[in-house]
Amino acid sequence: MSEVVHFTRQGPVGIITVDYPPVNALGPGVREGILEAVDRGVADTQVRAMVLIGAGRSFIAGADIRGFGKGRPTVTRRTHDVLEASPKPVVAAIHGYALGGGLENALGCHYRIAVPGARVGLPEVLIGILPGGGGTQRLPRLIGPEAALEMIVSGRHVPAPEALELGILDELVEGGELRDAAVAFAMRVMDEPVLPRISERGIPDHDPGIFDAIRRRIARRARNQKAPWHCIRCVEIACSTPFEDGIRQERALFEELENSEEAKALRYAFFSEREAQRSPHVSRGTPARPVAAAAVVGAGTMGGGIAMTCADAGLPVKIMDKDPETLARGMERIGKTYAASVERGSLDAAGMAARLALIEPVDSYDAIAGADVAIEAVFEETGVKREVFETLDRVMKPGALLLTNTSALDIDEIAAATGRPEDVAGAHFFSPANVMKLLEIVRGERTSEEVLASVQALAKRLAKVGVVCGNCDGFVANRSRAPFNTEMVLLLEEGALPEQVDKAMVEFGYPMGPFAVGDLAGLDIGYAGRKRREAADPAVRPLPIADALVGMGRLGMKTGAGWYRYEAGSRTPHPDPEVAALIRRVSDESGAGRRDFDDEEIVQRLLFSSVNEACRIIEEGIARRAVEVDTMWLYGFGFPRYRGGLMYWADTVGVREVYGRIAAWHQRYGERWAPSPLLRRLAERGAPLTEAMTDM
Asked: Which partner for 678 in 106, 419, 603, 615 could form a disulfide, CB atoms 3.0-4.6 Å apart?
C-alpha cells in the first residue's frame, strides 16, 4: 500500500485512511493510494462496504496547489470515478475540510456523513481555476444548479449543517467517534441493492434564467477574470449535456485556465500570503504569550472596530474611554453595526447577543489592568499616545502586550514612554477594523521576538493576516501608498478629473476608485498625515487642490461633499462642477498646463510610483521581501487579487519597462521620481521584482 493511504478492515467494512499531513491534500501518492485501496476493497471477498476517511485534522483539504501549472502525466483512472464505480458502497466520513478535490472525491462516494464542525466547498475559483474533477457536473445533479452555482462561483466553505440541508450530506454525526459512526453507517447500507451514483441522476428542475442572472450579478466583481465565467459555463453544460460529455468539457475548460495569467497571479497571492506571515524577524519556535482577555483604549471608530474584532473571535474585551459620552457613542455604534449584520442576514440575533456580551465598556485604566493585551486606539498624535502608554506602563500587569494602533507614528518614541519597550509593538489595523483583514505588526528597536510572535498569534486568532515590518514614517503599507496618493492629485493639476482616475482604477480591478475611497475615509485624515509629512520634510510636494477641499469644509461623504457630492442618505458619488472649477483654477495658477491622459498612463503613474517606493522600503529593511509588500497591498488597499499583488503585477509589465518609465518621469518631473537603486539593479540584471529582498 501507499505510505500516505492505509487500508484496514473492521469486520466487513474496509477503511481507507488518507494520512498526508498537515491537511491531507491530494499530494504525491494520495490519488494512487486511494485507487489501490479501492481496488483492494473491491477484490476482498470479506469486505462488503468501505469508508473513506482522513487522518489528523481533516478529510481531504483539496489538491496540492504546488502542482498546478507544472504539467502532469495524463490520468486514465480518476479517484472520484473509481469510487463511484465501486460495486460495494463507499461512505465518505468528513471532518475538518472537504474542499476542492476533497469534496469531489466525497461526491464520488455513494454516501457522505460529517461531524457538525466540518466544512465543504469547491473554492477553485479563488485561485483562478474551476473544479476539474467532476465537481461542476456532479454537484448540480445532487443539489440543483442554482445552489451549485452559488457554491462554485463564490468558492465559499459551507458548514456541515447547511451542507446537510442542501443535500450534500446524508447524515450528521452528533456524538462519538466519526470512524465508528462511519463503520456503523456502512454496515447499514452494505446490502442496498442499488447504489446511489450522482452521475446517474438527472438535473433537478430549475429556472433556465439563473445563468444569465448570475452573470449579471457578478459582472462588476468578476471583470477582467475568466474563472467565474467558466464556472458558470460548466454548470450550464451539466444541465444540457450527458455526464461524460460534460466531464470532457469541464476538463478542457480547466486546462485552459490552469496556465492562465489570472491563475498564476492567484497562486502567487496564495503562497505569498502564507510566506509573508513567516517573518524573518521571528525565529521558528519562539513562544507566544497566552491571551485570554483584551483591552482597547479609545472608543472611537477604530477602537470600536478593534473591540468587535476581538468579540468576533470569542475573545473577551474591555473597551475603555475616560470620556463617558465617547464611550456611550462607541457602544451605540458597535450595537448598530451588529444590528446591521443581523438585518443583512450575515449574523443571527443569538450571535449578536453573544458578541455584545464579550464587550464590556469601562471608564478607568484600573479596570483593564488584568488584560493580557492592551491595544491603544486614540487620536493619531504622538503626545496623546505617549500619555496613554505612560499610564499603561504603570497599571498593566507584567508581561502584558502593549500595542499601538498608529498608522504612521514612531513606535520607538511611543515605547520610550514606558519602562518596558520590549513589550511594545505596533498593531496597525485597517479601517473598518472589524472587516479589513490586514494587521501590520510594527517592530520597534527594542520589541522582543516573543512579543512579535505573540502579536502574530493574536492576529491569527482574530482572523487577520499579520505581517511584521520595521519602524519608519508610514511603515510599509502607508509609506508605499503615499506616492500613489500624491500622483493621483497631481494628475488633476495636469489635466485629469477625479471621475476619470477612478474609472481607470476600477477598470484595472479595484472595487472603488481612490478619490471615492478618500471621500469614504474622510479627507481630513489624509490632510493631517500630509501636513505632518510636509512639516518633517520640506521636499514633500504640497497638494493645493486637496488642501483647498479641506479648507472648504468638503471632508468627504460625512459632510456630503468631498471630491464628489453626495445626496442625503446616499453613498453614490456624483461629479461636482465646483470641484472641476477648483482643479482648473489651481492648474492655471501653477502653470502646469493641461493635457489628456489615457487609462494606461493613469494606472502606471499611480502604481509605478508605489513600486519605486516599495523598492526603497525593501532596500532599507523596513520590509524584507516583496511578498510582504504584495500581501499588504492585497489586504490593506483592495489591490485586485487576480493581479497577484503590486510587485507581481509590475513584473507582468516587465522590470526594465518599469524602470525605463520611472527614469523618464524622473527627467520630466524631478526628484520625486528618482529611481530606487534596488530597482535599477534589478532592471540591469533583468531580475523579477518579486525576488527583491533586503541586502540584494
From this structure: 615
